[in-house]
């Protein structure tokens, strides 16, 4: 459980940073939207898994759906890899141009967001 939790925590942090980096809206809006999608999915997953198992009369159906979702996510991340890199470079250039005070505030905001997400999991 602990080892799995480490991987989930790292994945959560990396995914959250990627979402915040490429989002065209302000950070609070992106964070709230991302949190809503993530937690509504976590709340609906047990219900949907049960319905899938009943409908297909197979305990394996939810796992097949999960595997398909993972593959789809890998395809999307592979396709969006270039955009993520461009967004990170643009964000770094913007922070450098804004000066040290803004860059420090941005790092503090990211640190606070990481702490909030870490305590939510």
From TrEMBL:
Q: Give the top-rank taxon of the lineage listed in the UniProt record for this protein.
A: Bacteria
* Name of the featured protein: Major facilitator superfamily (MFS) profile domain-containing protein
The lineage, from the top, is:
Bacteria, Bacillati, Actinomycetota, Actinomycetes, Streptosporangiales
